[in-house]
């Protein structure tokens, strides 16, 4: 359920998220995983997964709950993560901003009214008090921003950042823990499939890449059916999307170049970091005055040729999208199986401007499995 959301734009227009807001994911040093006996041996500790103890997590959770309890109104959003009924989880988001609730309503798989009535207790809970800062004097805190995950408690706490993508990636991070434990490969990729009418049924392609490298754009092909644009699992029966929506970059967006995404920006879509005329609400997609990381979050059903339910067979093609900041790779390379394994594990690419706080120019990166920022388990 999403209660009390009242979008302001005229019918047919998407509501831009209000200012102020961060423009990208927060620094890795502000992200923490609870160091607990049950999971500590299996967590990939390092520059992404910083340990905190359970006591500090509970202090931050109480801080978030106390803040939410001071609000005149809070929003509760229930949804699912994972289109595979055997592995999907129930997610509950508690937040103080309608923008955050609508964003997660778009990004999670939306329950039917019957499913909502029978939803019961969630498998994963997000406490988003992003408008309220963490206490930097608390042990193991590095700033006024803290994004904390407890695997054992199946909870995420957000303090000091209003970037909605932290919720989406928090769910994905937990699925990166959960799915491999069930023998399923969790993947930071987009996916599409050929149309049955053209003999393309079963012709599934995966597009791996860091944020901003083109996964959403390339998978939104009008000649193929979209399965998902960012997060997937690959099990014994094939692949499935984790999400119920898409999170598209819209810098320089035009109807001619990206018609599928252009048509998806309508009433109910959330626009982030965009410049727009406050009188006409016309969006200037050419402007990067706030950041290059302008975004649109919309339900996957807003793509005309989406395949719902978002499941498919085993992929025939796997494509790695590399933002080659050094110019050392040819434009297109066909890899052997051994080369593909090497490049998948090394993940040579670049971090794109605006996708993370402090990134203003492409920076060379080696991101294991093209998803090191979200991996809880070691990639090997």
Specify the structural class.
alpha+beta
Unreliable stretches covering 5 or more consecutive residues: 1-12
- State the helicity in percent bands: 10-25%
> How many DSSP H or I helices?
7
User: How much strand?
Assistant: 25-35%
- Assign the CATH class of the largest domain: Alpha Beta
Instruction: Give the mean pLDDT.
Output: 90
**Gyration radius, rounded:** 20 Å
H/E topology pattern: EEHEEHHEEEHEEHEEEEHEEEEEEHEE
Number of domains: 2
Instruction: State the end-to-end distance.
Output: 39 Å
Strand order of the largest sheet: 2-1-6-7-5-4-3
What does this 3D model show about the protein?
- The protein is an alpha+beta fold and 380 residues long.
- The protein folds into two domains: 28-181, Phosphoenolpyruvate Carboxykinase, domain 1 (3-Layer(aba) Sandwich), CATH 3.40.449; 185-374, Alpha-Beta Complex (Phosphoenolpyruvate Carboxykinase, domain 3).
- The protein is 18% helix and 26% strand.
- The chain is built from seven helices and 21 strands.
- A seven-stranded mixed β-sheet has the order 2-1-6-7-5-4-3, sandwiched between helices.
- The two termini are 39 Å apart.
- The model is unreliable at 1-12 (pLDDT under 50).
């Amino acid at each position: 359920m999403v209660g009390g959301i009242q979008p302001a734009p005229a019918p047919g227009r998407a509501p831009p998220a209000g200012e102020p807001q961060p423009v990208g994911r927060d620094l890795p040093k502000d992200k923490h995983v609870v160091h607990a006996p049950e999971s500590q041996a299996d967590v990939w500790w390092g520059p992404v997964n910083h340990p905190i103890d359970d006591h500090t997590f509970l202090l931050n959770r109480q801080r978030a709950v106390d803040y939410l309890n001071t609000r005149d109104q809070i929003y509760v959003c229930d949804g699912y993560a994972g289109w595979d009924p055997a592995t999907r989880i129930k997610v509950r988001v508690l937040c103080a901003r309608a923008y955050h609730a609508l964003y997660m309503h778009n990004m999670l798989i939306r329950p039917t009214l019957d499913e909502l009535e029978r939803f019961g207790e969630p498998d994963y809970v997000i406490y988003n008090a992003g408008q309220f800062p963490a206490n930097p004097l608390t042990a193991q805190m590095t700033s006024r921003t803290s994004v904390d995950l407890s695997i054992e408690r199946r909870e995420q706490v957000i303090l000091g950042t209003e970037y909605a993508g932290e919720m989406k990636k928090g769910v994905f991070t937990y699925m990166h823990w959960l799915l491999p434990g069930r023998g399923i490969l969790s993947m930071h990729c987009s996916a599409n499939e050929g149309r049955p009418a053209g003999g393309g049924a079963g012709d599934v392609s995966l597009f791996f890449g860091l944020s901003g490298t083109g996964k959403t754009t390339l998978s939104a092909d009008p000649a193929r059916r979209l399965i998902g644009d960012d997060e997937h699992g690959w099990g014994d029966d094939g692949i499935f999307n984790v999400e119920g929506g898409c999170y598209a970059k819209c810098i320089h967006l035009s109807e001619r170049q990206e018609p599928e995404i252009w048509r998806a920006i309508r009433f109910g879509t959330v626009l982030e970091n965009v410049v727009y005329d406050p009188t006409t609400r016309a969006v200037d997609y050419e402007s990067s005055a706030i950041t290059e990381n302008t975004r649109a979050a919309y339900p996957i059903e807003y793509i005309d040729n989406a395949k719902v339910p978002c499941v498919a067979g085993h992929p025939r093609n796997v494509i790695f999208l590399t933002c080659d900041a050094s110019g050392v790779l040819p434009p297109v390379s066909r890899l052997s199986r051994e080369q593909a394994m090497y490049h998948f594990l090394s993940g040579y690419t670049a971090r794109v401007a605006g996708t993370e706080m402090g990134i203003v120019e492409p920076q060379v990166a080696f991101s294991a499995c093209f998803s090191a920022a979200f991996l809880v388990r070691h990639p090997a």
